[in-house]
Specification:
8-stranded parallel barrel; single chain; alpha/beta; globular; binds phosphoenolpyruvate; about 250 residues; 10 helices; TIM Barrel
Length: about 250
């Protein structure tokens, strides 16, 4: 069986002192976690994280990666740069980037490709808005988002991680029920299975107000392989309880 993956998404939060306290508490509390644990931190803190995690099992992730290799792209951060800081994961296509930065399915697919080309595991986010769910379009939307990534990356998609993040559940305190999440995970699993014979390697995480109280029931679903955790990853005690629930 695959190890579960619990990845924190700090979003645009943190400062040097708070990061240090949080990471030290995580390292102390994690022990021999049964799952893989990562924190996806703002880019300026990657060097700090690399030093703090040194020799530990805590993995580092970025929150985005450029589709370009290098060059005149002011403000962008390349996969090669991330690699230099020991980054293992990069979130790609988070709904906040789709919504506030106009990221399209095609761009998300390109970013996935660039990350893979440089040995960074993209955590590819898909998910429907509340309006889309209420219009009965959940399946159509997540399949369309996934199809773009599959189309551009072919058999290489066996190396990605997928995060199903219903937009209406992100940062709202409204979590998908385990059954709602499982239903979408199962259809994503089937779509990935049709695209690659190595789909069993792909972890499908759930994200959207996962917390210490609901993690165990979500993580017990057959097609939920871990979590992408926003708000609750900023509190060591909460994040550690989610990590403990992932076995
Ligand atoms: C996220 O930002 O990916 C997320 C799931 O946030 P939250 O856990 O706060 O809903």
């Amino acid at each position: 069986m695959k190890k579960k993956l619990i990845a924190g998404n700090w979003k645009m939060n943190g400062n040097l002192a708070a990061n240090e306290a949080l990471v030290r508490a995580l390292l102390e509390g994690m022990g021999d976690a049964a799952c893989t644990v990562a924190v996806c931190v703002p880019a300026p803190y990657l060097a700090q994280l690399r030093a703090l995690r040194s020799g530990s099992a805590l993995e580092i992730g970025a929150q985005d990666v450029s589709q370009h290799e290098q060059g005149a792209y002011t403000g962008e951060i390349s996969a090669l740069m991330l690699k230099e800081f020991g980054v293992r994961y990069a979130i790609v296509g988070h709904s906040e980037r789709r919504q506030y930065h106009g990221e399209t399915d095609a761009l998300v697919a390109e970013k996935t490709k660039t990350a893979l080309a440089h040995g960074i595991t993209p955590i590819v986010c898909v998910g429907e808005t509340l309006a889309e769910r209420e219009a009965g379009k959940t399946e159509e939307v997540v399949k369309r988002q996934m199809a773009a990534v599959i189309h551009t990356n072919g058999h290489c998609i066996s190396e990605i991680v997928v995060a199903y993040e219903p937009v209406w559940a992100i940062g709202t305190g409204k979590t998908a029920t385990p059954e709602q999440a499982q239903q979408v995970h199962a259809l994503l699993r089937a779509q990935l299975h049709a695209a690659t014979s190595h789909s069993d390697r792909i972890s499908i995480l759930y994200g959207g107000s996962m917390n210490a109280a609901n993690a165990a029931s979500l993580l017990s679903q057959p097609d939920i392989d871990g979590g992408l955790v926003g708000g609750a990853s900023l509190k060591a005690a909460d994040f550690l309880q989610i990590i403990a629930a992932a076995r």
